[in-house]
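Every protein is a chain of amino acids, and every chain bends into a shape of its own. The protein below has been through that process, and both of its lines are reproduced in full.
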Amino acid sequence: MVFKCQEDSFLKQFKTKVVSSEFATLDWTSPQGEVQKLKGFQVVCEDTILFPEGGGQPCDYGTLGGFPVRNVQRKGTTAVHFVESPTSFEQDSEVLQQLDFPRRLDHMQQHSGQHLITALFDREFKYDTTSWSLGSSASYIQLSTPHLISRESLDLIERQANDLIREGREVSVVLVDPEVAQEFQDARAPRGLPKDHEGLARVVRIAGIESNMCCGTHVTNLSQLQCIKLLCAEKVKTNVLVHFVVGERVLQKLGEVFQREQQLTQALKGGPGQHLELVQKLQQNVKGSRKYFVQLLKDFATAEAERLEDLPKKERPKYFALHRRDGIEVDFINTFLRLAPAEGILYFLTVSEGVAAGSSAKGHLVLRGDPELVEKLGPQFVELLEGKGNGKEGSFQGKINNLARLQDCQDLLEAHFKPKKIVEAPSAAPPANGAELDKEE
């Protein structure tokens, strides 16, 4: 079946009749990325201007009878609308469908633009498009070639596409019988017809460029695409992804890039022409500072270890706990343990990324000492600190995700090493009134 949205992709509202309405729920992802459990009804109408998801194109949004349509799916020859409504719709009742046209226009621009880009890559380089993705901010086509496409080749296709847009080539949709070879001979059909397809097939034709079998909604003239920008090419295994934006998305992307450029100019204290040089200089400074900082940490670890080593054995603590929040630098722990006394002390060391002990932060933990005690405390510590770890032969290491309960770990240590109080049994009370106990003869 060809739906009304496929007959006229620019139709914004349409009256039709309800065929069926059944209660349903839907896990719906909002534009902000939140997943919501919606209650409503699955509604089938005699026809629809709301495109059901298919051909790589997401479904349309809009309203049905004034209530929001959150999803549209094709089932055979029908389109099923999920309508977020508190009440059902009566069979044979007339309802008004209204389309979220800005969303539709965006989808038409990206989809028709994809057809044009695909045709030009095929014409110029004989690269087949094996799939495409219409993303929320940018789209891509996957080309069947193992060779990364150069910027010069991208610019060539981009220039040709925009020349055709300025010419205003016509885009038309024709219905053909896929069983009749003569009618179908010039139509590309990369995906083939769905198994449940019935009747004639839709073929989208760009005048003088290509004919491509497609169920999606499209512009009627290339001039409605406004412009095309090929962003980059990315090699993925034996294929290449070409990322692109079309129409309103080009303007949106330009606005985003310009805003970031202004923010960088303010942060770097230099104009766009200096951005790369200034960032490279910052990277060099950070690299040098980091190297100096790591050396300071090693010096501190050495000093702490030597301080323990210099203590007389009888004055050395039974356990030693130390936390550093300078970053997850295991070199600090390794240096300390390499130089610290190896026997008689249980070491509990942690490092984290820039957050004070007692706060939520990721980090690294090491326990070293008496094997039996390490085996006992290690799993308890990583559980308290929401991490994972393992160990053997008196050494336990783990990655931790929350240092908020670090004090609880130290309390366990103190409880274990705290001297046990000796409680003496009370002596027998003397007899009342000084009387002596009877003795056995």
Remarks:
- The chain has nine helices and 18 strands.
